[in-house]
Amino acid sequence: MTSEFGALSLVPPLLAIALAIITRRALLSLFIGIWAGGAIIAADGAETALEFAAVPLLAVVEAFGWIVASYGDDTFHAEIIAFTFLLGAGIALVWRMGGSVAVAQAATTRVDSHRRVGLAAWLLGLVWFFDDYANTAIVGSAVKDIADEVRMSREKLAYILDSTAAPVATFGISSWVAFQIGLIQDVYDSEAISGETPSAVGTFLRSIPFNVYCLLALLMVLIIVLTRRDFGEMLDAETRAQRTGKVTREDATPLQSMKKDLGEPAVDDPLLRTFVVPVAVLVTVVVGGATITGFQAAGVTPGEALSETGALIDLIDNTDFTGALVWGSFSMVATAVAMALYDDVLTLEESMETILDGFGIMLTAVSILVMAWSIGTVAEVLETGQYVTALAEGIVTPTLLPVVVLLSTGIIAFSIGTSWGTMGIVTPIAVPMAYEIGGGSPELLSVAVGAIFSGAIFGDHCSPISDTTILSSTFAGADHIDHVRTQLYYALTVLAVSIVVYLLYGFFGLSPFVLVPIGAVVLVGLVYALSELDAARKDLVAKPFAGARERDVPSDD
């Protein structure tokens, strides 16, 4: 299937992305992109001169129709908005009770350096593998104040959150995996594939070594954290933070700022439990709620889920993760209010005002989310994904399959800003295509699935209209476009190595268990080489900012 609008279908998302990166005005850029989509639709239906003259106005009407629909027509979107607002309220209450300060004070003796803070954020991200939204929210909230203490730039923290949360969700028991297995099963159940094939679960498990971008993206974060070698705009951001203590750019617009929006904590001697207990309640309710909904909807018992792979996948596939996030964030707010009243830190009126302030600190993030979803709708209406996929189909051979799938999926994800939407577009096309050109090879099916995951996450990391990228900026307290610009250098580096790995596999048939370690070595070499070259070009010191630290900045030694 090809897009009715052809290359025009690329204009709205690419225009929005280009303007966002150039102007650093995400909301305005996204609206212009949505308006451009409305203009294309209006012009396509215009027949008279009067109708053509009315295209700009009709485009505004169309644009607001998509924006309004993004708020409530999709239950998933409504739940994510509710979760984001409620989590903002919970975070605000914890801040006012001094919980964030207490965590920073408690962690200072152990997580007392730039390297250790980065490593802690990375490890926490790996542990919270079953949902990327909750991953960025919980890890970002726990680490942000500690990161400020060691002068880690907000751009670096946002990168660690973003480049850990989504990749790790593609490997384990997560909503991502259940969604992709469901797509694979749908293809197997259709007439697109006949004959003997491994199960959808088996295909997914075999695809893990071929999910090269996600594997290397996780490794890239670890390399950057441990070596403290940066390049591109991240080097500028880290140098600024280390030399001046300014964790954001001078004229940056962070998606949230606790001190600016909420003022100072209400207590002078904060207690650690004011952070630990609300967050523990959040985690418990999310995990418990998700598990209960899975068992109820799938109709399986705990014994069946543990002993039968199919039953476990049914459980995961039927789990209401987003609903559980809403319940968990509400429980966090209720717990925080109860603790504030019990400890006599805040009155009921002050607690309610803080909740409203918490909603306020998330308003910009939610606005960008809605606009990003709206431009995703534009791409869906104009069939942008189908157009890109149709272009890719004409140049596919078994040797080039993983590279073509990786790049085409990446372009689609970059353009429409949603990994799940991208996988939904590409999987029904790429998997049968891999089956046909590979002569029914089960391995090539797994290669295609791994490349789909890789491309979807790569495009997600680079796109300013991606919801996970927006949330990473939000919970790191970073300027959103600054996060996109700084992460882009690292994402492209990982992409380049992934392409090399896929080409080596295509031409020589080497095992991914050999190729991925080779890619890791290449990645380490590139980080060292690029950091040295960039530091020399900018007359900056690449290696752990020797000579660039202020005396009061904790040492990694």
From TrEMBL:
<keyword id="KW-0472">Membrane</keyword>
<dbReference type="GO" id="GO:0005886">
    <property type="term" value="C:plasma membrane"/>
</dbReference>
<feature type="transmembrane region" description="Helical">
    <location>
        <begin position="395"/>
        <end position="416"/>
    </location>
</feature>
<keyword id="KW-1133">Transmembrane helix</keyword>
<keyword id="KW-0812">Transmembrane</keyword>
<feature type="transmembrane region" description="Helical">
    <location>
        <begin position="204"/>
        <end position="226"/>
    </location>
</feature>
<dbReference type="Pfam" id="PF03553">
    <property type="entry name" value="Na_H_antiporter"/>
</dbReference>
<dbReference type="InterPro" id="IPR018461">
    <property type="entry name" value="Na/H_Antiport_NhaC-like_C"/>
</dbReference>
<feature type="transmembrane region" description="Helical">
    <location>
        <begin position="321"/>
        <end position="342"/>
    </location>
</feature>
<feature type="transmembrane region" description="Helical">
    <location>
        <begin position="354"/>
        <end position="375"/>
    </location>
</feature>
<feature type="transmembrane region" description="Helical">
    <location>
        <begin position="80"/>
        <end position="99"/>
    </location>
</feature>
<protein>
    <submittedName>
        <fullName>Na+/H+ antiporter NhaC</fullName>
    </submittedName>
</protein>
<feature type="transmembrane region" description="Helical">
    <location>
        <begin position="164"/>
        <end position="184"/>
    </location>
</feature>
<feature type="transmembrane region" description="Helical">
    <location>
        <begin position="514"/>
        <end position="531"/>
    </location>
</feature>
<keyword id="KW-1003">Cell membrane</keyword>
<feature type="transmembrane region" description="Helical">
    <location>
        <begin position="488"/>
        <end position="508"/>
    </location>
</feature>
<feature type="transmembrane region" description="Helical">
    <location>
        <begin position="275"/>
        <end position="301"/>
    </location>
</feature>
<feature type="domain" description="Na+/H+ antiporter NhaC-like C-terminal">
    <location>
        <begin position="168"/>
        <end position="507"/>
    </location>
</feature>
<feature type="transmembrane region" description="Helical">
    <location>
        <begin position="49"/>
        <end position="68"/>
    </location>
</feature>
